[in-house]
């Protein structure tokens, strides 16, 4: 809590209740928004487009052509979910998350509603936590939408059967769905770090578009830096370093190394940027 | 909130300063612990060598990291055109960094998984069956080893150059140990920890002015004698030119299912026959030279000995047109009498009359060897 003096027990209870109520209303606002659904629809369109394009062309795709796993799609529709994820990771997913995270504080400040939110008995830090939780909820929704849309399109347009893993081993449909959900979890985790950065940037400004753009630009810049071999000393510290590491979940046996490394890295980014956002927001003059 | 209306209080920024400090502290402590010297009973170089030579670990599963800083231009990953363990694939394994999982069970069951970005290359050996699978091409190659080779491999404990030749720390280290002739000073350095195990650090210093190798360090597991890491320092280079180490290792039989491989439906499968002679020749080559085992086949003649060995390959033993690919053209540099491929550890000279000289020696020595004929 931001408060210095000790709170009495009922006050704490009241505040925490207010926090949960705030989270509920925040999630309600997020998922009633036209913009949220537009972004999720755009994400879902990626696997749909891939599926239609592959279905409507008669040419065979040579292995190694196009994005990874594309050649497998005609044999097994479930691969659309993977192709869609690989294609969306560099830009689409970070872009939508930047919009959701960059809007958190700056959007309220811009609309002039931040004052009223702070009038609620929840406290600034709790408000920030609620805002971040909503941004993470969006990350999860985005990753799940992508994977679920991919699986659905795959089931509708293509035969579905046992899935060949990267190691050449084959697993059944049930386990494949589980693995794809794991991929969605991995992607959500990867985006949670970016959401924390977006939250911090959002506390710096009252122009939501600026915060969104800055967050998206950071995501792209980090990936460009990650592609330069001359900077390999920096790579382990980039939050984009393990973004494509979800491939380790489709090996046999599953390699959890990159999941662990990614969790550690994203955890670090979340801790640092949420602390920065907390400090900034606690000292910020809220004028609007 | 009314209470937070006093801005500028520096305590507000405390968490923002403390969290990165805690993380940095954690990183530093972690690194220090990882590098913490362990204290093993002292052993002479001979004892450590014997420990390594006597290792009977044939069951393990582990993760291996390999990095090379050979000063070669990075090969783009799309360059791999051939399937199978071709020269290009071998070259790729020598450039950049890779991570791989290794499973071993007995002398005739092994699996190597090279973990690429969004792809994987697998080599599975189960008895006489050897499978190679590349997920990027969705291609499988099957080879049936001749009966004799399989039996020989079972009989000779010394022979560790199976299909995983040159890739487990084990096979690499034994090759280096063989090269430790009188021309090498062998010492035992400070004890180290590799993959969470205490290990002796065996240092090999070449006693030659002409070789590019500055030193070779091999970590030998104190308990089992299994080589856990190999790193090669090149002259005039800070970073190790070549590093291969287990990052994770567990001794004990891996899940037997790991060695069962059936090519996935939809993959193209090629049958590859292994002639008996080829296996023997490859074996002989592997025994002949320690420095340059990269060429899959072909006759090689060598001049010089120890670290200064220069190997001459006839042009026919190399894949046709291998020097003409754009990547190679970029890497080759014109010198007197031919073109030179220069790396931190190995120099290769392509003479104008089509001969190839390679060795872990200075270009001048290669040129001398070329003229000496």
Automatic annotation (TrEMBL), chain A:
Keyword DNA repair found: no
Membrane-spanning parts: 37-58, 78-101, 132-160, 180-202, 209-228, 263-282
Keyword Transmembrane helix annotated: yes
Keywords carried by this UniProt record: Membrane, Transmembrane, Transmembrane helix
Name recorded for this polypeptide: ABC transporter permease
TrEMBL record, chain B:
Pfam families: MucB_RseB
Domain MucB/RseB N-terminal span(s) in chain numbering: 99-237
Disordered: region residues: 269-306
Domain of life of the organism encoding this protein: Bacteria
Residue ranges with Basic and acidic residues bias: 281-302
Signal peptide: none
Protein name per the record: MucB/RseB N-terminal domain-containing protein
Organism phylogeny: Bacteria, Bacillati, Actinomycetota, Actinomycetes, Micrococcales
């Amino acid at each position: 809590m931001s408060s210095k003096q000790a709170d009495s027990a009922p006050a704490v209870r009241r505040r925490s209740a207010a926090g949960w109520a705030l989270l509920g209303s925040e999630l309600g606002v997020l998922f009633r928004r036209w913009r949220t659904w537009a972004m999720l629809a755009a994400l879902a369109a990626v696997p749909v487009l891939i599926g239609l394009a592959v279905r409507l062309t008669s040419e065979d795709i040579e292995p190694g052509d196009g994005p990874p796993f594309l050649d497998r799609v005609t044999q097994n529709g479930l691969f659309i979910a993977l192709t869609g994820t690989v294609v969306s990771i560099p830009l689409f997913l970070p872009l939508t998350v930047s919009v959701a995270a960059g809007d958190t504080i700056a959007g309220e400040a811009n609309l002039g509603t931040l004052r009223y939110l702070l009038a609620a008995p929840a406290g600034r830090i709790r408000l920030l936590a609620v805002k971040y939780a909503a941004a993470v909820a969006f990350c999860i929704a985005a990753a799940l939408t992508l994977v679920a849309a991919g699986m659905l399109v795959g089931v509708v347009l293509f035969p579905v059967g046992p899935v060949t893993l990267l190691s050449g081993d084959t697993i059944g449909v049930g386990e494949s769905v589980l693995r794809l959900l794991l991929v969605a979890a991995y992607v959500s985790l990867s985006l949670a770090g970016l959401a924390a950065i977006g939250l911090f940037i959002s506390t710096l400004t009252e122009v939501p578009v600026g915060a969104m753009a800055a967050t998206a630009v950071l995501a792209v810049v980090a990936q460009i830096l990650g592609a330069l071999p001359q900077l390999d000393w920096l790579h382990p510290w980039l939050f984009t370093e393990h973004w494509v590491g979800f491939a380790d979940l489709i090996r046999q046996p599953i390699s959890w190394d990159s999941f662990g490394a990614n969790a550690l890295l994203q955890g670090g980014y979340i801790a640092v940027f949420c602390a920065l956002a907390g400090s900034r927001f606690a000292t910020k003059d809220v004028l609007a | 909130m009314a209470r937070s209306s006093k801005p500028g209080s520096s305590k507000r920024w405390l968490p923002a300063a403390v969290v990165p400090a805690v993380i940095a502290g954690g990183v530093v402590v972690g690194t220090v612990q990882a590098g913490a010297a362990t204290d093993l009973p002292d052993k002479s170089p001979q004892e450590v060598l014997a420990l390594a030579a006597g290792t009977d670990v044939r069951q393990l599963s582990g993760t291996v990291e390999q990095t090379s800083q050979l000063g070669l231009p990075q090969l783009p990953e799309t360059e791999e055109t051939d399937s199978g363990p071709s020269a290009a694939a071998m070259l790729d394994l020598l450039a950049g960094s890779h991570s791989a999982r290794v499973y071993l069970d007995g002398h005739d069951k092994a699996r190597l998984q090279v973990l690429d970005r969004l792809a994987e290359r697998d080599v599975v050996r189960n008895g006489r069956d050897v499978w190679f699978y590349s997920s990027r091409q969705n291609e499988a190659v099957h080879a049936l080893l001749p009966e004799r080779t399989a039996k020989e491999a079972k009989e000779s404990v010394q022979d560790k150059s199976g299909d995983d030749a040159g890739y487990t720390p084990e096979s690499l280290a034994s090759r280096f140990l063989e090269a430790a002739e009188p021309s090498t000073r062998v010492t035992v350095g400070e004890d180290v920890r590799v993959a969470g195990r205490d290990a002796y650090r065996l240092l090999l210093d070449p006693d030659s002015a002409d070789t590019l190798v500055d030193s070779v360090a091999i970590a030998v597991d104190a308990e089992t004698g299994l080589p856990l890491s190999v790193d090669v320092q090149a002259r005039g280079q800070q970073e190790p030119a070549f590093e291969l180490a287990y990052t994770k290792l567990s001794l004990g039989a891996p899940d037997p299912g790991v060695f069962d491989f059936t090519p996935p439906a939809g993959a193209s499968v090629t049958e590859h026959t292994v002639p008996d002679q080829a296996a023997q020749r490859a074996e002989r080559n592997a025994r002949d030279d320690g420095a340059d085992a990269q060429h899959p086949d072909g006759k090689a003649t060598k001049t010089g000995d120890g670290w200064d060995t220069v190997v001459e390959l006839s042009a026919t033993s190399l894949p046709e047109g291998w020097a003409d690919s754009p990547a190679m053209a970029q890497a080759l540099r014109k010198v007197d009498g031919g073109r030179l491929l220069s790396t931190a550890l190995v120099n290769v000279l392509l003479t104008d009359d089509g001969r190839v000289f390679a060795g872990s020696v200075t270009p001048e020595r290669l040129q001398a060897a070329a003229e000496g004929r």
